[in-house]
Amino acid sequence: MRLGEIELQHLGFINHLAINQRRLRSFLSNFTMADVEVVDPKKCLEESCKPKCVKPLLEYQACVKRVQGDKSGHKHCTGQYFDYWQCVDKCVGPKLFAELK
């Protein structure tokens, strides 16, 4: 091989590397945002507020025990369930909107 042919091969190889490097960057740029795990602040705030709502939770759990043996399907604990989540939401609401501002 002559020196000119070697230089041309070298330039072709460098060009090939540059093209592949651009492709790799383009490919990797698609994944950078997907790799970031987003955490829902509402879920975290709910967990911190649940201990403040023990009374409605205990009322709901007591209701569940009472109606467990009901075969008719007429008894339910919907009211106690919503009372519990209303307590949690009342605690979460101001904290969540403070984070959004």
Automatic annotation (TrEMBL):
InterPro entries: Cyt_b-c1_6 (IPR003422), Ubol_cytC_Rdtase_hinge_dom (IPR023184), Ubol_cytC_Rdtase_hinge_dom_sf (IPR036811). Signal peptide: none annotated. Keywords: Disulfide bond, Electron transport, Membrane, Mitochondrion, Mitochondrion inner membrane, Respiratory chain, Transport. It is found in: Mitochondrion inner membrane. Gene3D superfamilies: Ubiquinol-cytochrome C reductase hinge domain (1.10.287.20). One of its GO terms (cellular component) is mitochondrial inner membrane. Its main location: mitochondrion. It is a peripheral membrane protein. One of its GO terms (biological process) is mitochondrial electron transport, ubiquinol to cytochrome c. Residues 40-101 form the Ubiquinol-cytochrome C reductase hinge domain. PANTHER family: CYTOCHROME B-C1 COMPLEX SUBUNIT 6 (PTHR15336:SF10), UBIQUINOL-CYTOCHROME C REDUCTASE COMPLEX 7.8 KDA PROTEIN (PTHR15336). Component of the ubiquinol-cytochrome c oxidoreductase (cytochrome b-c1 complex, complex III, CIII), a multisubunit enzyme composed of 10 subunits. The complex is composed of 3 respiratory subunits cytochrome b (MT-CYB), cytochrome c1 (CYC1-1 or CYC1-2) and Rieske protein (UCR1-1 or UCR1-2), 2 core protein subunits MPPalpha1 (or MPPalpha2) and MPPB, and 5 low-molecular weight protein subunits QCR7-1 (or QCR7-2), UCRQ-1 (or UCRQ-2), QCR9, UCRY and probably QCR6-1 (or QCR6-2). Belongs to the UQCRH/QCR6 family. This is Complex III subunit VI. It comes from Brassica campestris.
